[in-house]
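Case study 2.
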Amino acid sequence: MTNLNNESRLLTPTEVAEWLGRSVPALSQLRYRGTGPRFIHAGGRVRYRQSDVDAWLTHGERDAT
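Prediction:
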């Protein structure tokens, strides 16, 4: 069994939605619109790499409006 670091850990939509403070349907809409974090299909299920969610959050950082 391989030991995955946190950055390559696969997260469920429920875990990501809780982390982001959003609902699972809201996260689904972000996927549909192509505006959310990158995701993968693993065994027919949606999963997110923690590093992709981190990158998406970083990309959205702003210093001013």
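The beta strands are 10-11, 40-42, 45-49.
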